[in-house]
Every structure is written in structure tokens, then in C-alpha cells.
Design goal:
The chain is α/β, with parallel strands linked by helices. The chain has a domain of about 140 residues. About 25% of the residues lie in helices and about 20% in strands. It has a 12-stranded parallel β-sheet. A two-stranded antiparallel sheet has the order 3-4. The chain has a two-stranded parallel ribbon with strand order 10-12. Strand 14, helix 10 and strand 15 form a beta-alpha-beta unit. Helix 5 packs parallel to helix 6. The termini are far apart. The N terminus is likely disordered.
Length: about 375
């Protein structure tokens, strides 16, 4: 089992008079902030004293976040042939054993600046224990580094089911390989976040009967939107919240949407909240049928804080909306009054509008807005 060096010397007088007097539950809560990026963040704390060492080693929660990223690669010198694979495997084993039976939160980078995660490390993480430790996984974030349209062979040796999985994040997935490759069954899956997801094959990699359990879908594109994004979104027909995000919002990339009119309309009868982040293509929004939509959030993109979809939202999306939330960054261009009027008047059931003080000032002098008796909340 992987073990850090233990210092059995008694705590310093300062520690004895302050930190060491804290209840162990509170001390472990402090440690948990340091371990938010995994137990490697506690490797120095284990040197302090035997008391700290025992608290950390025996707290299951502190070992339940496993992240295979750049820090992991650097810590075990996995960038060359002299990589300490055996120590990395021992560390993974310690995390799995010491966290049991606590739910796991796993983040996996398949490729870290050209360094592929060794197959034995993946096997130790995903195929050890009886039953497999991975079946305790509550959240899985899977980063796949590959170029657009490049074939990707699914190589993760996952079990047939992940009974506890509730949150799934996948970035850069492209599948043009064996259609028999399928993701494990996830009966508790509640939230899915797909970034640059290019799955154009049938049957889909993710099992169809798991779509119905998902309550929230976030669909992010920072490369380009393509025509089969819409029918793929429709697979998650039971979602209550849909987030469409384009953080960079480069309009020229939308030319690839030329055939989107020939795709099926996504019928999302359960959808209540639609969040638009950045400049989501109009043609994408026009393919959504959301008869029971109650709330629309409009925000600027994180990487393009001046761009938003306020003036692009199709009016048919607003027919049943009762709440609109507009969150524009300080550096974004203030909305034009006629764009605000278009949105507000296009939502006949609108009862509450939330926005910045600048938007409130624009609307304060508009008689047509006063006549609507809409409650305005300032952010």
C-alpha cells in the first residue's frame, strides 16, 4: 500500500496550544479543503505529526477524490521511461482502500501534454477490488484529448454498470469505432455535461435507457456546432434544465450549420429552465420545442464576456416563460432597448425579470414596461 513518510515527533508548542486542541471532526473539515483536488494536496500535512497522520489516513472522505491530471503525472514523474508507475499504482490503491465504502469522485485526463496515462494505472483505478471500487463512483469527469473528427477507440476498461454514478462530464469525445462499445448502465445518472461531443454513430455510446433519468444536460461547444447536436439533445427528453454554452462565441464557426433545418426538432416536454451562455447559434435554438418552459437565463460567455444571445432568442421559446434572468458582464455591450422590448413583449406570461442595475435603468422610463406590472429584481 502506498504510504507517505510519517513523522512521529510530537507537535510543536504552537500546534499543541492551538490547532491540536481542535476537535478531530473540525480538523478533518479543514483538511478536506486542502484535499478538494485529491489526497496529494495533503502529502505535506502527513509529515507534521502522528496525530495528523492518523486523522488523515482514517478519514474516508479525504481519500475519495481521485484526480489523474498534470499534478499526478508530475508527482510520480510519469513523463519518461523512468516513471514511478509502481508508486503511482500504490497511491491509487491507497486512495481506493482508505476511502471505502465512501462514494468516489474521479477526474481522469487520458492525455496530459502528450503523456498518456499508463494502462496499468487505469486498470488499478477501474478494475480493482471485488466488487470493483469504481462501482462506488458518484461523479466521473473524463477528459479526452483528440483532434476534431479524429477516430477515438474507447479504451477505458469500465464494468457493465456504475450503480452510484450521478454526475458525468465528458470532454472531447469522438466515436467512429466499434458500435458495440457502450458506456456502463447508470440507473442513478442525474446530470450530464458534454463538451465538444461528436458522437454521430448509432447506437449511441451512452445507453438509451439511462437518458430518461437525467434531469440536467449541459451542452458546451467551444469548437463548432454541428447538425446532429439537436437530435442528440433530444435523447435526453426527460431533462428539466438545459444549458447551451458557447464560451468563445466565434460567429464564423456557425457556417457548418447549413443542414440543420433537415434535422429533427428536439421535443423537450419536461424542460422548465433553459440557460443560454455566450452566443448560441439561432438555428440551434430554433430546433427546440419546449411547450412547458418557465424560465430563460441569458448570460455572457466566460471567454467572450461581451457576447450574449439576448437579441437572438426565438420568440416561440418565450410563450410560456414566467421568469427571465439576464446576467451580462460589466464589459459586455449594454443591451439595446428595442432588444429588451422584443424579449419582454414576446413573453406574454412574464411575471419576473432579473437583471443588472443598468438594465433596470433602461426600463425605468419605458411606459410599456410599467404597464406590464412585471416585478424587476436587480442583481
Amino acid at each position: 500500500m502506498y504510504s507517505f513518510h510519517k513523522n512521529n515527533q510530537p507537535p510543536s508548542p504552537l500546534l499543541r496550544s492551538s490547532i491540536s486542541l481542535l476537535p478531530p471532526e473540525l480538523l478533518c473539515e479543514i483538511f478536506s479543503f486542502r484535499a478538494s483536488r485529491g489526497p496529494l494536496g495533503l502529502r505535506h500535512a502527513l509529515f507534521v505529526c502522528k496525530y495528523w497522520h492518523n486523522l488523515i489516513v482514517n478519514d474516508q472522505k479525504l481519500w475519495s477524490t481521485i484526480i489523474l491530471d498534470r499534478d499526478f503525472v508530475d508527482q510520480f514523474k510519469l513523463r519518461g521511461v523512468s516513471g514511478q508507475i509502481s508508486k503511482a499504482n500504490a497511491y491509487i490503491g491507497a486512495c481506493l482502500d482508505r476511502s471505502a465504502p465512501f462514494p468516489l469522485d474521479i477526474t481522469l485526463f487520458e492525455n496530459v501534454n502528450g503523456v498518456l496515462v499508463d494502462a496499468s494505472i487505469l486498470s488499478r483505478l477501474l478494475c480493482s477490488g471485488e466488487p470493483y471500487h469504481i462501482q462506488r463512483c458518484r461523479s466521473l469527469s473524463w477528459y479526452i484529448e483528440n483532434e476534431l473528427y479524429e477516430n477515438h477507440t474507447v479504451s477505458l476498461p469500465l464494468p457493465s454498470s456504475l450503480e452510484r454514478l450521478e454526475y458525468l462530464f465528458v470532454r472531447g469525445f469522438t466515436l467512429h469505432s466499434d458500435p458495440s462499445d457502450r458506456f456502463p448502465q447508470c440507473p442513478r445518472l442525474k446530470e450530464v455535461h458534454l463538451v465538444n461531443h461528436l458522437e454521430g454513430t448509432l447506437p449511441h455510446y451512452f445507453l438509451d435507457h439511462d437518458y430518461t433519468h437525467v434531469e440536467k444536460l449541459t451542452y458546451t461547444s467551444d469548437i463548432r456546432w454541428i447538425d446532429y447536436d439537436i437530435p442528440y439533445i433530444q435523447n435526453f427528453h426527460g431533462i428539466h434544465t438545459l444549458v447551451l454554452e458557447d464560451p468563445f462565441s466565434v460567429t464564423l464557426r456557425y457556417t457548418i450549420l447549413g443542414d440543420v433545418e433537415n434535422t429533427a426538432i428536439a421535443h423537450l416536454h419536461s424542460l422548465e429552465t433553459l440557460k443560454l451562455i455566450g452566443l448560441v447559434p439561432l438555428k440551434i435554438m430554433q430546433r427546440l420545442y419546449v411547450p412547458n418552459l418557465k424560465r430563460i437565463d441569458i448570460a455572457t460567455g466566460s471567454s467572450a464576456p461581451h457576447v450574449h444571445s439576448l437579441d437572438k432568442v426565438p420568440l416561440p421559446l418565450l410563450q410560456s416563460v414566467v421568469r427571465i434572468f439576464i446576467c451580462l458582464s460589466d464589459s459586455s455591450t449594454p443591451p439595446e432597448p428595442h432588444h429588451l422590448r422584443r424579449i419582454i413583449c414576446g413573453a406574454p406570461s412574464l411575471a419576473c425579470l432579473t437583471g443588472t442595475s443598468g438594465i433596470g435603468e433602461l426600463l425605468a422610463g419605458e411606459e410599456w414596461f410599467k404597464e406590464r406590472n412585471i416585478v424587476y429584481n436587480c442583481i
